[in-house]
Hints:
By secondary structure, the chain is of the alpha+beta class. It is 58% helix and 11% strand.
Amino acid sequence: xxxxxxxxxxxxxxxxxxxxxxxxxxxxxxxxxxxxxxxxxxxxxxxxxxxxxxxxxxxxxxxxxxxxxxxxxxxxxxxxxxxxxxxxxxxxxxxxxxxxxxxxxxxxxxxxxxxxxxxxxxxxxxxxxxxxxxxxxxxxxxxxxxxxxxxxxxxxxxxxxxxxxxxxxxxxxxxxxxxxxxxxxxxxxxxxxxxxxxxxxxxxxxxxxxxxxxxxxxxxxxxxxxxxxxx
Length: 231
């Protein structure tokens, strides 16, 4: 009894001898691989046919990889957008005019990134966003005198201190006079710095009371949450 694909056998054999893979013929003619294997068992490919088969396999692999990259990138973009939308929904529930919430957020930033050894309230970062947040809340919550703020920079060896002071002065909207020292890391000599990297800016305010309060807020809040959850 002939199979329902029997009429396609000559075409399948022709494609196989041209170097087509089993998978490619299977998808093209919609014939089960088990049937194709039986038809092709006596076919002996010559060197040229084998080379064509290998080349087709390589091209198919490259195409499949490119397709996989595109698919994964689209999926990643989708997950990032979902995360952003979820974050926006959370922020809608938070009163950004509530200074208690803002002070709590500042406390956790300080617990993670702020200076805890010196007798001052200080935080360093290479991120303008983090430093703007830190500075704006210090001014908004504690009404600090910006004239008492000092900043110093930690730079790579090929960075120009004056240019970097001007950059951070613009970003943080602080007078250039607030920027005192710039330390160059000699270990980076001979290594080119990426244009987007502007060094680390350390904001210092000579008041340890704020530092102490922020650390107590963060630690006590953690403790209360742990106790409430029974951990």
